[in-house]
Amino acid sequence: MLRYQNRRLTIFWFLGPAVISLLLVGIAPLVFAVYTSFHRYQLTNLRSTPFVGFKNYLFVLTDGVFWEAMGRTFTLLLMSLPIQIALGMGIALLLHKPGLGYLRTLTRLGLVIPMATTYAVVGLLGQVMFNIKYGVINQLIGFLGVSPINWLGDSTNAFAAVVFWDIWQWTPFCALVLLAGLTTVPGEVEEAAKLETKNWWKVLRHVQLPFLIPGLTALFILRTADTLKLFDMVFTMTRGGPGSATELISLLIQRVGFRAFDQGLASAQAIILLILTIVLSMLYIRFFYKEVAQ
Amino acid sequence: MATVEYEGIGKKFGVETVMTDINLTVGDQRFVVLLGPSGCGKTTLLRMTAGLETITSGEIRIGGKRMNGVHPRDRDIAMVFQNYALYPTMKVFDNIAFTLQVKKFPRDEVERKVRWAADLLDLTPYLHRFPKALSGGQRQRVAMGRALVRDPKVFLFDEPLSNLDAKLRGQMRYEIRRIHDRLDTTTIYVTHDQVEAMTMADEIVVMRDGRIEQIGPPDAVYDTPANLFVADFIGAPPMNFLDGKVEDDGGQPVFRFKSLALPLPNDVRWDADRPLIYGIRPVDIEVDPGGALRGKMVMSENTGPETMIHLEVDDEDIRAVIAGRPHIARGETVAFGINPAKVHLFDPDSGQRIT
What we know:
The complex is a heterodimer.
Chain A: H1 2-37, H2 55-61, H3 64-96, H4 102-116, H5 119-129, H6 136-143, H7 155-182, H8 187-196, H9 200-228, H10 232-237, H11 249-259, H12 263-293
Helix pairs in contact in A: 1-12, 2-12, 3-7, 3-9, 4-7, 7-9, 9-12, 11-12
Chain B: E1 4-13, E2 16-26, E3 31-35, H1 42-50, E4 57-62, E5 65-66, E6 77-80, H2 92-102, H3 107-120, H4 136-148, E7 154-158, H5 166-183, E8 186-191, H6 194-200, E9 203-208, E10 211-216, H7 218-223, H8 228-233, E11 240-249, E12 252-257, E13 260-263, E14 275-280, E15 285-287, E16 293-302, E17 306-313, E18 316-323, E19 333-338, E20 344-346
Helix pairs in contact in B: 2-3, 2-4, 3-4
């Protein structure tokens, strides 16, 4: 009996810290957000926080600003993800070639740098590099004889800069995941294909791609979730501006919650975003893994 | 239909030299087996033939054409891999058809060729299965089917049977040889299994440490092994090797091994006191009450049709294989004889055969 209790205590001490921190950091704020989303919860007036039912949700769902921000977020995703995957695949295929030796190790190390850099730092770097007067980008294109471009002050250019920066930071991640996928193709299978065709595209399409599906699925899910919650990089680089040109969904939620002080509304927006993310992830898994299971 | 010629082939991996100066001609329509222990270079030689490894020095010619640097696809060869290398996401039909599809063969011809190969290999009922739903033997046949439909000049096999169980291996040996005899395509077959080599080959190439130790038909390699290595590698159970020297026994040479005086072949040139290694296969030792030699039976291994017995002579173990199941008790003294015509003699320093 004592022994049994001891074992239960042991289990508690091992799991306890992780479970408690998860509850505190992850679940409690989520529950609080669900709570506030059903109340009028304005930071300027915390004396009265009446229950308002689905009012916040209804407002969000019919709010043009919310859907515009959502649209911008998906535009960013649809523009950057295909390029990240295409470039990543190219890099992965190059690095997968036999006989690279140290060059491969060095390149792999180099690829980790953008991913390891904090979003906020990437954003600050962008702010400096894209600066109209002192930025290195304008310096460089100046050498080519192009007159300085107003990167961050122009709506289209600012959005392009965000897309570019996102591609820069996350292409290496795609490359590393796809490279790992390529190494799961049995060597003999690749060689058998080599005996049958010289066409790299046919080898990729028919022989290697099936082995990459799990990695690609993971990439789609992670990149979609990352883009939907992308905040720090854009916040430090453009603050969502100029105007609302780069105001992604997470920046909008932050603005509503902490600059307009309407926590109830911001929570409702966040919950809708969460539901959307979960639904999208499930769709990805169902759609792609079906192909693998066949 | 083609000969394959190797001229002065050398191979280095980085600074490591794994092969020097291999010279070999594989005749048209021949079935040649490269045999040796792992690390002997047989697979490397095969992969160089296929174009999957570069050739460091020398020249490989297929059908008289230099193959160095030619892309694997353009060498007109087909290779069957050890782990089958089937495309896991394609059904059997597509696995076999892939090579034709990428070459843009017309659809009905693809269909006809795949059906022909499937028929030859008894794969017709499985054409619409995925490889994972097949047994090892069936997968191996699919791999062969893939090679067959290419109608290549040379078939290359890289230890194709090593993942199969013993019974299936025997059956596949027969099938591979049967297909070769039907199609008469030049075949190079790599294995470490001397039984496969003995049963399938027209010619065996025994390799060790990146060198060729002996080339010859199975009978010749078995009956007159060129050196200790080949003598030890070919034949199961392996040959007995006894260290001793030649002695003059009243004008007649005998081989002195401990307390035994063993008979020598008639045609041997001999010098008294010359140290030699005396090789005799277990099957060539005749257990017979009239035999002049004596040993103590310490253990027997019964395999059904025959029995291997271990005879102890002055603390040395001599193995003999006899038909049936003799009733010899452990510890009993056994009389045996040796047919001098079956004796192999080797030089202890060079390991070479002395004829």
